[in-house]
Amino acid sequence: MRKYLLFLLATLLFSSVNAFDSKSINITRSLAYDAKKSGISPQIVKEIVRIFSWKIDFSRDLRRGDRFIIIGNKGAAPKAIIYNSGKKRVAVFSYVDKFGRLNYYAINGKTLYPSFLRNPVKYRRISSKFQRKRFHPILKTWLPHRAVDYAANKGSKVYASADGVVEKRKYIGALGNAIYLKHGANYVSVYAHLLRFARGLRVGKKVKKGQVIGLVGSTGRSTGSHLHYELRYKGKRKNPLTWHLPKQKRVPAPDLRRFQSQAREILRNFR
Ligand SMILES: [Zn+2]
Question: What span, in angstroms and rounded, lies between the C-alpha atoms of 206 and 177?
Fold first, then answer.
C-alpha cells in the first residue's frame, strides 16, 4: 500500500514536471543575439531585462556561459525564469493575483524590485523643487535644479529610499558630503550636503529601505541645513516627488506555501 502511494506520488510529480517545457538562452555574445538564436521572442527578452535588472546589470555582469532558462513557455507567459552564472542564481516564478495580474516573484514571495520611500527625510518644508530653472542663491545665476531640497534641522536622520548598494560615499565639491545608492541596474538615489555619514557605511555595502545613512547638514555649496535629493533613472534625473516609483509586491500569505512548493519543485528540476 505504502509502495503504491509512493509510486502514485512519484508519477504525479513526474507528470507535473513534464507539464513544463523549457528553453535556454546560453550567453555567447549578448542577450538579444543569443535569445534570437534560441528562438526566444523579443517580448520575453524585454521581460527578462525588466525583471532581472534589479539583480543583474546587463551592460556589465553578463558573461559567456551564463544561462537563462525559460520554463513552461508554451506560447504563454513563462512559469518561471532562472538565471544561472555558475556563481549566482536568480530565479523568479509567476503568480497571478486575485485581480488576474501576473507578476514574477522570488521564492521568498517578494518581487525583485523593492519599494521606494517618497521622501528620505523628515523635513520642515520643501525649499526647492525639481525645476528647469531657478535662481541659484550662491552662484547668482539661473540653473536647472533637477532634485528636491528638503529644509530640515541640522542632524536630522537621512534614510535610504530603497534597498540598494552604496556606490559613492565621499565629499564631492558642490554636493559636499554625498551618498550615491544604486538600486538595481536602473536607479540611483543621491543624498547631498550631509553633516556626516552613518557609521559603518562603506562603498559596496548593502543598505535596507529606511536605514539611516547619514545626517542632514550644509556641507558643500549650500546656504542652510537641507537635504538635496536626486533620483536617477537610467542616468537621467527624475522628479522624486512625481516619478512613478516601484512598489514591491508579495504573494499573499494564504497562497505563499503553495507558491513556494511549486517553486521548489521547479528548482529541483531545472538547475
Ligand atoms: Zn538642491
Answer: 19
Residue 176 CA to ligand 1 centre (angstroms): 11
- The structural domains of the chain, ordered by start, are 16-113+249-269 (3.10.450.350), 125-238 (2.70.70.10)
Nearest to 269 by CA among 2, 15, 5, 4: 15
Ligand 1: centre distance to CA 153 (Å): 15
Span from the CA of 175 to the centroid of ligand 1 (angstroms): 8
**Quick check: 109 and 94 in contact, CB under 8 A?**
no
Backbone dihedral angles phi then psi of residue 174, each to the nearest 5 degrees: -60, -30
In angstroms, the Cα distances linking 72 to 29, 47, 81, 221 are 25, 15, 9, 55
CB-based contact 149:226 (threshold 8 Å): yes
Distance 222 CA to ligand 1 centre (A): 8
- Model-wide pTM > 0.85: no
**Ligand 1 centroid from CA 221, angstroms:** 9
pLDDT digits (tens, 9 = 90+) for 208-240: 999 999 999 999 999 999 999 999 999 999 999
